[in-house]
Design brief:
Layout (H helix, E strand, L loop, with lengths): L2 E6 L5 H13 L3 E6 L14 H7 L4 H7 L2 H21 L5 E6 L1 H12 L7 E5 L7 H4 L5 E4 L11 H21 L10 E6 L4 H13 L3 E6 L3 H11 L5 E6 L1 H8 L12 H5 L3 E6 L3 E4 L12 E5 L2 E5 L2 H15 L6 E6 L16 H15 L5 E5 L6 H14 L2 H7 L1
Parallel strand pairs: 1-2, 1-3, 3-4, 4-5, 6-7, 6-8, 8-9, 9-13, 13-14
Antiparallel strand pairs: 10-12, 11-12
Helix pairs in contact: 1-7, 2-4, 4-5, 8-14, 10-12, 12-13
Length: 411
């Protein structure tokens, strides 16, 4: 039978977890119930005790109780739950993970879920899902479901939500246990970044790489996309990286939405993985439906009903150029930076509202200066980033970077 792991604080949510266990047993699932509570006794008997979870975190329940600090306890139990779930996965006892709760249990359980490989079903039912859930999801394929009401007993609303969650994880676990068809044999995998404003150029690169025999995974640079790219690179799942879209860096610098974290644009270089990078979308910063008051004097552009942009100014362009150079300069593997001299996005190309050669030149000069004397190859082309010739040139350059053995595996 498929194994479903339930992770929960059984001192406060025991009734709900007992209901879920019975529902999942009725659906043919073998359930492993993990207790991450700390204070009061569990309402139901777990399969993995809170003592074992605490020990897996390198501490003890007595020590956590003595400190009397909820934040410390949550952090420790999150660490222990991740270790326990990783062990269960190695033992072949994880075909899906389900958890329900509020902020504390969401932090504990999603940390454990993020310890599992991409593809293992992960479902979090949380009262926190109506807000920003990026810290819970990270760069994984974790699914979050809004609980509508708080997880506080079985009532006419919660029973339907919990039933849907149990049915969903049972279906996913059954499919996962049956096995996923392997992709077409032996192809090298390339991770590529894209946003709406760089789609034509990236599509041209992707199409050529596919013809050359590579499998291309495209990541949307919305914050989670960049984090996923870096995580999969760190996990050894990518042969090479094509990274022409760096919007997450300008968002991070200026305070826009969609930030991928401090290691964005660093993992491939640190690990020596071949990479071709460009400067796509550094001519803008992304916000929601409205920009903050302090930016309303800037060149604001309503991209769609959900996204509003501002144009990066000279100081920001200079700093972004220095940032890109600082992240690429330490690379220990083959690295090339492609500079599109005629524009960085659909909005920044000739005729677009953000086309400004003088501002682009500030960015280009800063990145050239920052990479001077480094082994990073700079390739400049008199096109905009969405010219198909630019995309194909990046793809061809990355293909030539790869070793003959890798190229043979791709063909």
């Amino acid at each position: 039978m498929p194994f479903v792991v339930l992770i929960g604080t059984l001192d406060t949510k025991g009734l709900e977890y007992e209901w879920l266990r019975e529902r999942l047993n009725g659906l043919g699932m073998e359930v492993v119930l993990v207790d991450t509570g700390v204070l009061d006794p569990p309402w139901v008997q777990p399969d993995v005790s809170r003592d074992e979870v605490a020990r897996a975190a390198g501490t003890s329940l007595a020590a956590l109780r003595a400190q009397g600090d909820r934040g410390v306890a949550v952090t420790a139990m999150a660490r222990g739950a991740a270790a326990v779930v990783a062990r269960l996965h190695r033992e072949g006892r994880v075909h899906g993970v389900l958890s329900v709760g509020g902020s504390g249990n969401s932090a504990i359980s999603t940390n454990a879920m993020r310890a599992l490989p991409v593809g293992v079903p992960k479902l979090m039912v949380s009262s926190m899902t109506s807000g920003d859930v990026s810290t819970y999801i990270g760069g994984t394929d974790l699914t979050m479901m809004y609980s509508v009401v708080d997880i506080a007993g079985i009532n006419r609303i919660s029973v339907r939500v919990l039933a849907n969650a149990a049915d969903a994880i049972a279906g996913m676990a059954t499919g996962f246990a049956a096995g996923t068809p392997a992709p077409p044999g032996g192809r090298a995998v390339i991770g590529a970044t894209m946003a709406g404003v760089t789609t034509p150029g990236v599509n041209a690169a992707r199409e050529l790489l596919s013809v050359l025999g590579y499998e291309v995974l495209v990541f949307h640079t919305t914050g989670p996309g960049g984090r996923s790219l870096e995580a999969m690179t760190a996990g050894g799942m990518l042969t090479a990286v094509l990274d022409p879209t760096l919007l997450e860096l300008s968002n991070a610098l200026v305070g826009g939405v969609g930030v991928a974290g401090p290691d964005r644009l660093e993992t491939a270089g640190r690990l020596g993985i071949p990479q071709v990078v460009s400067l796509g979308a550094l001519d803008m910063v992304k916000f929601g439906p409205e920009v903050p008051e302090r930016f309303r004097h800037r060149h604001v552009h309503a991209h769609n009903p959900s996204v509003t942009l501002i144009r990066t100014n000279a100081d920001e362009c200079a700093e972004l150029g220095r940032t890109v150079a600082a992240k690429l300069r330490p690379a220990v593997g083959p690295t090339a930076l492609f500079i599109p001299l005629r524009g960085l996005s659909t909005l920044g190309s000739p005729g677009g509202p953000y086309h400004d050669p003088a501002l682009d030149a500030v960015l280009f000069d800063a990145v050239r200066d920052g990479l001077a004397g480094s082994p990073v190859e700079i390739v400049e082309m008199d096109t905009d980033i969405n010219d198909p010739a630019f995309g194909r040139a990046m793809a061809d350059h990355l293909h030539l970077m790869l070793t003959p053995a890798m190229r043979a595996a791709a063909s």
